[in-house]
Amino acid sequence: MIDRVLSRVQPGSIVLFHNAAKYTPQALPTILESLIRDGYDFVPVSQLIYRENYRIDHTGRQIPVPPAPEQ
């Protein structure tokens, strides 16, 4: 798990860990320490979701909502 995450992460990546996964508790400190050392920042998912002028489609992507036509 550690090698897989660290070899694939790149700027803009969202890395999700399930708290009930078997090896997450053991792997997480090593992964976080490595990413911090590499200069990555961590933010809650709520900061990644645009709330205005966007919608989330069926794939989970945020899609800009076009402005309503003026009347």
Question: How does the SSE layout of this entry go?
Answer:
Layout: H1 2-8, H2 24-37, E1 54-56, E2 62-64
Antiparallel strand pairs: 1-2
Explained architecture:
The chain is built from two helices and two strands. By secondary structure, the chain is an alpha+beta fold. The protein has a two-stranded antiparallel ribbon. The longest helix is centred in the middle third of the chain and has 14 residues, at 24-37. The N and C termini lie far apart (55 Å). The mean pLDDT is 88.
- Number-wise, the strands total 2
| Contiguous runs where pLDDT drops below 50 for at least 5 residues | none
Instruction: State the end-to-end CA separation.
Output: 55 Å
Relative helix content: 25-40%
Tally the helices: 2
Describe the main β-sheet briefly. 2 strands, antiparallel
**Tertiary shape:** elongated
* Average residue-wise pLDDT: 88
Outline of the structure:
This protein is of the alpha+beta class.
Keywords:
single chain; 71 residues; alpha+beta; two-stranded antiparallel sheet; 2 helices; elongated
